[in-house]
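Batch manifest, entry 17 of 40.
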Amino acid sequence: MTYDLTNRRVVPLDLDGVTDKAGLMDRCARSLALPDWFGRNWDALADSLSDRTVWPEGADGRGPLLVVRGWRAYADARPQEWATAQEVFAEAAERDPALTVALAVGGSAEHLTGQAGRSDRA
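Output type: structure tokens
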């Protein structure tokens, strides 16, 4: 973990290789160092993200900046789950405005392999 220019704790959440909810929950638990009581469900994730007592050390001042990267394969494999995950991230940030969740543009390098020069926009 590092700090951004606004002195916020940057917490990377790398979803490369995650293609289902169980993988997302495991990656969140590991990356965010969530406590053993983390229930690995949507409500528990929202609760944990907005609970300052489980935020990484140094994040309780200005709040953490959670940067989600490598998410595109998960979004492609499970669009409904990904939509729910985004709702959970938004709900947690609304509960505690000190939390910021940012989706890194570009998804993962794996998704972009062989896609150079491709554009889905007209």
